[in-house]
Amino acid sequence: MERGAPLTGTVTLSRATPAQRDAVARLLGRRPRDGATVSVRLEDVDALLRRSGAHPEGLAAGVVALTGPVRDRAAAASEEEAAWAAAFAVLDSAVAERPELHAWAAGLRGTGTVRRIARDPLVAGELLTQLTTVLAALPTEPEPVGRFAERILGSAHALDTDRSLTGLVFGAARVLGGVGDGQGAGWRRDVWASVGLLRDELSSTVLVLNLPTARDTPTGRMLAVLHEAGEPGVITLRQLRQPPRLRAGCTVSVCENPVVVAEAADRLGAEAGALVCIGGQPGVAAITLLRSLAEDGAALRYHGDFDWGGMRIGNVVLGRLQAAPWRFDAAAYRRSALHGAGRPLTGEPVACAWDPELTEAMRVTGQAVEEEHVLDGLLADLHAG
After folding, report:
1. Largest alpha-carbon pair distance within the chain?
2. Domain 205-384 class in CATH
3. Do residues 237 and 199 make contact, with C-beta atoms less than 8 angstroms apart?
4. What distance lies between CA 65 and its chain's CA centroid?
5. pLDDT for 316-342, tens place per residue?
6. Matching Pfam families, A to Z (predicted)?
7. Per-domain residue ranges of the chain
8. 3-state SS class at 11
9. What is the distance, to the nearest Å, from the Cα of residue 41 to the centroid of all Cα atoms in its chain?
10. Cβ(379)–Cβ(261) under 8 Å?
11. Any alpha helices (H) in the chain, and if so which ranges?
């Protein structure tokens, strides 16, 4: 009856006790049988109940009278699935116009993550509603996680590390920020920072060289002194609360790897052009500084590694900032790869948003070219700049 099956056919009780065998025999008016099992045709029981008047409505109604309503498992499962679908509907709607989140949202549903966390569709609906509220606000301008949670969810603790919601938001942040696989506290801070959420203001830093800044802020004065000496400096996000003002009309070169900054300082010193190093996937401090420089009228140009990780980073930098590629296109790649400066290109290909021809050139050539191998050209530009 729970399966919604008709009450027909034979049911068998194995290892029946003598008392059970006797009870069935007396019910059906047949002689007791030897053996360890008892079999009964359900049609016989139904006919007996109706004919005898014990329960004129038959076996199914008799079971309900004796045990109470019988749960229809198929109908209950259907209702539960409908409730889960309703819970996920709010998330489906939220990511419908955000294709970058489609695979992530499908993973939440397919892996059963939300079901394991929430257990109940109603609880899941509340959780996913909160999640979509957060997603609608990401990425955000840099701000502490607690302040963001208070502003968006009404509680500064809503995204504390022990909350179920926090884990779901973290997964979405990895996708939105384009941060690769990793582990450890530093990596987690980078993931949060990639969408503007700060666990603190001192962990997010950016490396710079020779920024021609005004001396009207503490950070500006520090950078001016370093510029005079031709020495690199590290700026924290806290120091960018009052971002340094840049001299108008300046070109700021942006690189991926610290080795470019070190070589520029060693070879060119104070004569090197303004240089910012994002150190891989750009953190909040790097994005904040570069946006501030662009607002001051600086012309940004970016160079990174010619590998698939470099393409991902380039898509973020050139997509989120007003920056132009700097020796970072198909022609520059072919010149570098032609001289055998690379290593075998491995990993999953990444489409290059600013120069689709570059992706194809890298596929065909199969070489990765890191910034260390093209330093002479970069430094020549920095000297001229």
Report:
1. 111
2. alpha beta
3. no
4. 53
5. 899 888 899 999 999 999 998 887 666
6. DUF2399, DUF3323
7. 10-67, 74-198, 205-384
8. strand
9. 57
10. no
11. 18-28, 42-52, 59-67, 73-95, 102-110, 113-118, 121-136, 145-153, 164-177, 184-194, 218-229, 258-267, 284-295, 308-320, 330-338, 356-365, 375-384
Instruction: From 381, 358, 107, select the one nearest 263 (Cα to Cα).
Output: 381
Sole residue written with tokens 């003598």: 18
Contact (CB, 8 A) for 246 and 297: yes
Pick the closest to residue 305 from 278, 284, 286, 272 (CA basis). Answer: 278
State whether residue 289 is helix, strand or coil: helix
Torsion of CA 153, 155, 156, 157, to 10 degrees: -100
Q: 195, 147, 151, 207: which is closest to 171 by C-alpha?
A: 195
Instruction: State the amino acid at position 222 in one-letter form.
Output: M
Report DSSP letters for 46-82, one per residue.
HHHHHHHSS-TT-HHHHHHHHH-PPP-HHHHHHHHHH
* Bridge partner list, 206: 235
Interatomic CA distance for residues 199 and 193, integer angstroms = 8
Higher pLDDT: 156 or 199? It is 156
Closest-CA residue to 91 (of 149, 120, 130, 119): 130
Express each pLDDT in 193-242 by its tens digit. 888 888 777 778 899 999 998 888 899 999 999 999 999 999 998 898 78
Q: Which residue has the tokens 């120069």?
A: 355
Closest CA to 308 of 253, 261, 260, 370: 370
